[in-house]
Amino acid sequence: MGLRHSTPDTSTPRQMGTEPFMTLQTVHRLFLVLILLLLPGTMSAVHGQQPVAIPNYWDPRERVILPDLTPRTRIRFLTTADFPPFNFIDQRDRVAGFHVDLARAICSELAIVEKCQLQVLPWNELTSAITSGQGDAIIAGLAVNSDNRKQFLFTRPFLKLPARFIRLKTTSLPTQDSQALAQRRVGVLAKSAHEALLRTYFPDIKPVTYGTADFMFDGLKTGEVDAVFGDGVQLSFWLGSNRADDCCIFFDGPYFAPAFLGEGLSVAVRNDSPDLVQAFDHALQALSKNGRLKELYLRYFPNGLY
Asked: Could you read off the pLDDT of 53-81 as tens digits, one per residue?
């Protein structure tokens, strides 16, 4: 199957104690999908910029029944503090980020805020903590793969993170799709999944590998390469940075490929907790419908990913 794309319709992290969500403020790995994935959604203008595509992964006809969570006295989410914008420590020394606000929104939607707690752990302690009963759910980007499915159940994806091309605004290309990059030099991080993806599905492009993102972006700005291919989150934040200086724009895509990096970002729970998966899915669907998920998406990804 060829790659297709869709257009939208080391220090140890600090340990923090457990605290209720009501006191918190506002890829772990990045994932791609190897099929044509239509992302129906609305378009929203941000600060006078071009409209931002809002992802929506739910069939409007689907209904997820809310299970009874009354028997549960508490629900403990585990996360990390070293993966911005998803999880990080803010200026007030509190855990914040997209994952944190999403967990709080899930608890609010389920009307169980008083039962919800969050604990921050180092990444390498998350799985052992949940399997030993120290937590009920991981919201930190745990990969949805065959190995992890042996230990955990996963919710439906709440965010799929694409690969994208970016190019200089001043670059003149014959068409507005990836075919315009045939026989052209495209920068990509060496030994990354994006390099493998680029070489596999864009054989007419000439990859130019870089050891760091800074060198790669410098190569784009100086004209050493005609475009850059990489993680949509990283590229989105760079495009909005002072260093980019409004030089560049997304080009074609987004591209998805689970065979390289996984299926998307989901909440993981223990295998003995199917009720939590169903409850979280119910909440995620409701948040998608009522606009809260859109609000969080624009808060943390104002330049969009799609």
From this structure: 788 889 989 999 999 999 999 999 999 99
